[in-house]
């Protein structure tokens, strides 16, 4: 594990320091890709059903629209999680994992363990959320 300062922030990253986190990210990436395939299948089914029932009454049509929008929102969420996971793995490969992308300070190890895709330290994330 990397050394930490008194706040629990990673102070150095050594070769292999984040192997456990990397393994967790790889497992999460496989899970997310499977989830994406499931959501795509669900979306295709909803689209097929809405085309088959084009003569439905307005209530049925509204329900199908809601289902389609819901599946599309799920797909967007999964795609964002896949991208964030791939970026975190890329930061590990580049040796920049655990460094805040905003201020350049180390990200606290407990934060990285709790949220391995974190690209911002707690302070910068809080500032971003206030905007």
Structural write-up:
There is one protein chain. The chain is mainly alpha-helical. The protein has four helices and no strands. α1 (19-52) packs antiparallel against α2 (58-94). Residues 1-6 and 8-15 have low confidence and may be disordered.
Order of helices and strands: HHHH
Estimated radius of gyration: 20 Å
Summed up, the helix count is 4
Structural class designation:
mainly alpha
Mean pLDDT: 85
Proportion of residues in helical segments: 55-70%
**What composes the largest sheet?**
none
Q: What's the N-to-C terminus distance?
A: 34 Å
Output the keywords.
mainly alpha; 131 residues; disordered N terminus
Short description:
The protein is an all-alpha fold. It has four helices and no strands.
List strands and helices in order, with pairings.
Layout: H1 19-52, H2 58-94, H3 109-114, H4 122-130
Helix pairs in contact: 1-2
